[in-house]
Amino acid sequence: MNRRYRKTIIAGNWKMNKTPKEARSLVDAIRPLVSKAKWCTTVLCVPFVDISPALKATRATKIAIGAQNMHWEASGAYTGEVSAQMLVEMGVKYVIVGHSERRQYFGETDEIVNKKVLAAMEAGLKPIICVGETLEERELGITEERIRLQVKRALHGVNVENIRRLVVAYEPIWAIGTGKTATVEQASEVCTLIRDTIRELFGARAARSVTIQYGGSMNAENAAGLLSQLNIDGGLIGGASLKPESFKAIVDAANQ
User: Which residue is catalytic, options 71, 99, 101, 108?
Assistant: First the structure.
């Protein structure tokens, strides 16, 4: 982490878990555990139906609420979709874009991710842009090429003045929900690569302002080691974000 230039952000991704009533109870359990988080921003990215109760439960706190997805159009005949403007009006601050599960199960391409990034930023949302390689791509030795391409495509057309408003999350696909975690060295190497790519596109000043998270099974046991790396500025937390004490331990690690 380097707090001199950028925010430390711990974001929970609840995925498709928790009814509105359950969401309120979970937020109520998490809220006092992270209330003293002085050095990092805490974000809870919840299902659409949980946004309203989550916002009510975090009112007058420093916890921000994020969405897990959005459409790139402002309105139209897109049954089942939600626009950036809808999220903003509710009070949502962040939105996850391009998560590997969206790419894998719903066919989201790099082009779609780019459209969502631009729409989110235009509406005033802060996108958490996910990039990552499959196990096959890592074993083929093309991790660097894959990550560079994803970053370049995702940020195509982004204005340099807005760069500090976005977050990039490195989530090795082979470590999502598998219990496997990239080593500290592997995670640091790719997060450094992401920053180097942003530097090539937008310059050194812009690159050092971007928060880069690690998002591959970060948990209470490995958080401190991962967050000790210069270019890892937080975490996009899956399963551990549904467990108040585990989530607290990660937030505590980010506050050291």
Answer: 99
The lowest-confidence range among 13-17, 93-97, 186-190, 216-220 is 216-220
- The single residue of 108, 133, 137, 171 carrying the catalytic annotation is 171
Catalytic, 99? Answer yes
How many other CB atoms are found less than 10 A from the CB of residue 16?
7
| pLDDT digit string, tens, across residues 122-137 | 999 999 999 999 989 9
108-119 residue pLDDT tens: 999 999 999 999
Instruction: Give CA 161 to chain center in angstroms.
Output: 20
> In Å, what is the CA distance from 35 to each residue of 1, 20, 60, 63, 165?
21, 22, 11, 8, 23
Extract the tokens encoding 231. Answer: 């270019």
Residue type, 190: V
Task: Say whether pLDDT at 217 is over 90.
Answer: no
Beta-sheet strands, E only, within 150-194: 167-170
Average pLDDT, the chain: 96
Angle at 178 between CA 149 and CA 240, to 5 degrees: 100
Q: Residue 174: which of 145, 143, 148 has the closest Cα?
A: 143
185 is a catalytic site residue:
no
Q: At a CB cut-off of 8 Å and minimum separation 6, what does 100 contact?
A: 130, 132, 171, 173, 176
How many other CB atoms are there within 10 angstroms of residue 146's CB atom? Answer: 18
